[in-house]
Amino acid sequence: MKEVLIIIPAYNEQDNIKRVVDNLIENYPQYDYVVVNDGSRDHTRRICRENGYRLLDLPVNLGLAGGFQAGMKYAYRAGYKYAIQFDADGQHRPEYIEPIKKKMEEGYDIVIASRFVSKKKPFSMRMLGSRLISAAIKITTGKRIKDPTSGMRMFNRRIIKECATNINYGPEPDTVSFLMKNGATVAEVQAEMDERIAGQSYLTAFKSISYMVRMLTSILVIQNFRKRR
Fold it and tell me: Which terminus of the chain is less hemmed in, N or C, by CB atoms within 10 Å?
């Protein structure tokens, strides 16, 4: 069985994608990767093709959930033991993949690269949403996730299969919460995140607030009625 697949969803990341993927190829060749181009309107597709990157090229924009599921389908069908979400904007650091993998080998289903295992969460408007989501997960699962909005998460084969063969499994805190409610074991590993240095984040102030409201509603209300195949 193949070991680790790095799933890199990319939407309009022409300014970052080459730097991110070249770093993986040159410095972390022990890991496989796949770029999921989510119907980008810029030159992301062309850059990937010109450089011969391993690419899933979605013809239309499916959103982060669709890109994530495409990557998980690829991981499942190709027989990977572990799959890890990895941002195309350069914020995630690949040196944490190995400690995350070692934690997975202790028997966890999901391991999250967390900024707040050994460091205190700052008090800010941005972190207020994170605190609220952590509280919601604690209320509904009885367990605390210190960095629920971290997008760098590794999944084992069982969770890869579940995400690949079912719908409505996006790379978001409510999915982690739902899986925890259904028996998934989760751990966190201390990690640092870099700031985006090029391109624009899709999360505006309004979208950030909307995201937090959506996550809280899903975790506290909708998941009580969600069915699992």
Answer: C
The answer to whether 114 touches 97, Cβ cutoff 8 Å, is no
Instruction: State whether residue 8 is helix, strand or coil.
Output: strand
Nearby residues of 155 by Cβ (< 8 Å), 6 or more positions away:
72, 82, 83, 84, 109, 110, 163
Is residue 32 within 8 A of residue 5, CB to CB? The reply is yes
Cα(140)–Cα(145) distance, rounded to whole angstroms? Answer: 12
- CB contact set of 157 (below 8 Å; sequence gap of 6+): 1, 80, 81, 82
Place of tokens 């799933």: 7
Q: Residue 105: CB partners within 8 Å, gap ≥ 6?
A: none
pTM of the entire predicted model:
0.91
Coarse DSSP helix, strand, coil percentages of the chain, rounded to the nearest 5 percent: 45, 15, 40
pLDDT per residue over 177-197, tens digit each? 999 999 999 999 999 999 756
Q: What is the pLDDT of residues 154-163, one digit of tens each?
A: 999 999 999 9
2, β-bridge pairs: 80
Cα separation values, 43 from 17, 40, 198, Å: 10, 7, 14
